[in-house]
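User: I'm curious whether this sequence folds into something compact or stays loose and floppy. Could you predict its structure so I can see for myself?
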Amino acid sequence: LVIAPERLTNIACMSATTDVVSQPTDTYLSLCWAERAADGTVTTVFVQSRDHGGSFLPAVVVNSSSAPVLMPVSASIAVTWSGEEERVHIVVPVDRAGSMPEELRIFTSLDQGAQWSAGFAVDSSGYAQREPSLAAFENTLFLSYSCRVDVTAQRNIFFTYSPDGGETFAPPVAVTDRT
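Assistant: Here's the prediction. I'll summarize afterward.
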């Protein structure tokens, strides 16, 4: 089984999730990965299996943007649900214009990955945000990530959550203080 034979660039990272908790009898497996091309473009790709990994729907590009060669690439995926509405969320670091460091952007699909939002930043600070991890339970989406708030300090871990399926987020809070 080759999931996406047309994808030819280097895979930098991947993440997987399932909606088994909200849909125990009709479970989907969702995968995402980030590819880094030789020209610095980082492309986030999504695929989904609706038969327990036996086959996958065609790959869909979630986001594609240029990134500095030294920028670490990471991605995380989670599914929220409320009643019959299921949302797929992917978070990746993206380069900001000018001399600003990368920021995390969350992309959301309301139709099982066929179409994706333009993405939005949860943390509007000017600090470098990396290594995101998403988790979800029912309609609550959780995000943790590392962030360097001072060029002389080590990275700290930050946490935020959305009680409404990714519509709004609480202000990020520092979990560690490594100054």
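Summary: The mean pLDDT is 88. The chain is about 0% helix and 50% strand.
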